[in-house]
Amino acid sequence: MTAALRRRCALFAAAAALVALACGSPASAAVEMSIGIRYVIPSGTADDCSAKAKTALGAYLMNVSEPIPGEFLAVGPLGVVGPTTTSAVVSCAAAAKGYAVTFTCVVQTPQSPYSADDLCLDVAHNFSGKAVKPLATPAPPPTGCTTANLVGTWTSDKNSGLTLTMTIDGDLTDSDGVSGNWILYGTAATLTYYGTHAMTLTPDGKHLRGGGNDYTRKC
Description:
By secondary structure, the protein is of the alpha+beta class. The chain has 3 helices and 13 strands. It is 20% helix and 38% strand. Strand 10 and strand 11 (196-201) form a beta hairpin.
């Protein structure tokens, strides 16, 4: 196995781990992979491949990065707060003329809005400029007392002077300025704030129970 292939395998394994180890994943979840889409572009430079890779990944996923030179990783899905359920890797490599590019996708089903094959196909089509019907972008999660997220201001049931303000990007800040983050998967919530606390969101979206402290959301 060449050094380049070892790096690619390592990055693919990391992408799979991001999905497989998503916090709060239900037992019924499965990891689906799509491997093998490959284009050989007879003209162009490494910079061309890099730019197209970032654009194609950014069309469907978030946090595009280049953890290994020529290997581009993104996770998501786009516009959704919560555990990572979707990732893709675009790999650029020099060829005798131009460059070769490969696409690999990993998703957690049924939580990801995309199948691995569909995601990889559309990322590849975006990269090559082919006409393609875009994958549907998930609707932004609603705000207010909803079971879709924890956005809003929460007051401790034990200490009315303690409030937590939670934002759409998964961050939280308490009334003393101490920060943390939150994740919601179904009704299972995880607050990382003075440690990690597993909590449950009530069906009306108004209360968090467990984790050593209960909170009520102002709606």
